Amino acid sequence: LILFFIIAVIFLIFASIYLGRLISRPLRLISQTLNTENTTYIDNLQKDRTEFGDISRLIDKSFKQKLIIVN
After folding, report:
1. Is pLDDT at 1 greater than 90 in this prediction?
2. Interatomic CA distance for residues 56 and 37, integer angstroms
3. Sequence-separated (6 or more) residues with CB below 8 Å from residue 30
4. What predicted TM-score, i.e. pTM, was given to this entire model?
5. Burial of 71 (0-12, 13-18, 19+ CB in 10 A)
6. Is 71 in a helix, a strand, or coil?
7. Could you report how far apart the first and last alpha carbons of the chain are, in Å?
8. Model confidence over 17-71: pLDDT tens digits?
9. Residues 6 or more apart from 41 whose CB is under 8 A from it?
């Protein structure tokens, strides 16, 4: 029974680290892009078929529309 709890705790630690990286990396790239208005940070992310990919494509589209409006 104790061994089960130890294995469960180890699993939860690794799962939380993995999920943290899975979420924090795309958010960091999106944040850098929004702060600098430089879409090179999200070039690879735009290819993903995830929600983060959708957000990245929308950001890129909005920056392109902004350039058209300003010019």
Report:
1. no
2. 12
3. 41, 42, 45, 52, 55, 56, 59
4. 0.77
5. exposed
6. coil
7. 68
8. 999 889 999 999 999 999 999 999 999 999 999 999 999 999 999 999 999 999 8
9. 29, 30, 32, 33
Q: Quick one: tokens of 56?
A: 């990245």
Q: Tokens for 67, please give them.
A: 């350039």
CA-based nearest residue to 51, from 32, 20, 23, 70: 23
User: Among 65, 64, 67, 45, which Cα is nearest to 56's?
Assistant: 45
Tokens of 63: 């920056």
